[in-house]
Amino acid sequence: MKTLRCENPGEMVYGEAEIPKPGKGESLLKIRKVGICGTDIHAFSGNQPFFAYPRILGHEIAADYIAGDAEGIQVGDKVTVIPYLTKGLDIASRLGRPNCATDMQVLGVHIDGAMAEYIVVPSHAVCTSKGLSYDELVLVEPIAIGAHAIQRAGLIPSEYTLVIGAGPIGLGIISLAHIAGAKVIAMDMDDSRLAQARKLGASHTINPKEKDVTTTLSEITNGDMPTLLFDATGNTTAINSAFQYMAHGARYILVGLQKDEIHFSHPEFHKREGTLMSSRNALAKDFEYVMDRFEEKSLQSGYFITRRVNFADAASLFTDPDRPLLKGIKTIIEFN
Predict the structure, then answer these.
(1) Which residues form the Alcohol dehydrogenase-like N-terminal domain (predicted)?
(2) Is 39 designated active site?
(3) Which of 193, 228, 271, 321 is most buried, judging by how many CB atoms fall within 10 Å of its CB?
């Protein structure tokens, strides 16, 4: 089978390997589509935390079920995969939070992922399609990250919700927050992404290059400021700046990840009785929730996928000096 491996930062290499054979508790999948996400781009650039080279990237998966012992799944079924693998014995798993397990191994990050024609995964990580298309299945994982963040936040219908960053993860949060009844405010420096945010339910958008953010938020919220904030940028400046946008009693959820320390005024945060939390990966129930939203058509794949590339041409997207992967919303690798 053909593989595409990130050999070192800045270096993508095609290779050949034997088709893996599933053992007990494992399943063999034929990859149909893989989404390229920020983790893959950061790994290629050399600035992804908790990463080692060489590595086959890819953890946003749509595939056909070929063989194995996954319960309730038949050969030929369309499937996706929960790519966060753990033995399930650590403290987080025992608390029902395997998404942040101490022994976490993420496909395409800690172990080889899905930029290959076939992959073997634990059978319990395989999710049935519920009749979804490959386009929908490949989007389940990134949107499930937003679903998990919203669940962590305890979103209240009609509350003003600021989503900072309108990339794939941010747009997923925007769409699901709108479905849940929030008054969504989207902020990004890319007007085309803000236009997409409006299509997905954002009632207000802010480009910080054009408007004073604090003043604009105050006007939108009648002086209250947002009671729920999500960072989906992974940008240190954006993360630090957002503390000043919090209403008194607000919750601030960090979904994006970066390497540096964050800084904020403790007195200002304290007087607000603010809540700060992180949101990492997603749970099986978040995958189920997103698949249900696709099934009922309240989520539409066409709003997220903006570029398609054949597997044979995928390496060139990473190495192109014009950096096309930073443009548009979601690029999908397709396997013939």
Answers:
(1) 23-127
(2) yes
(3) 228
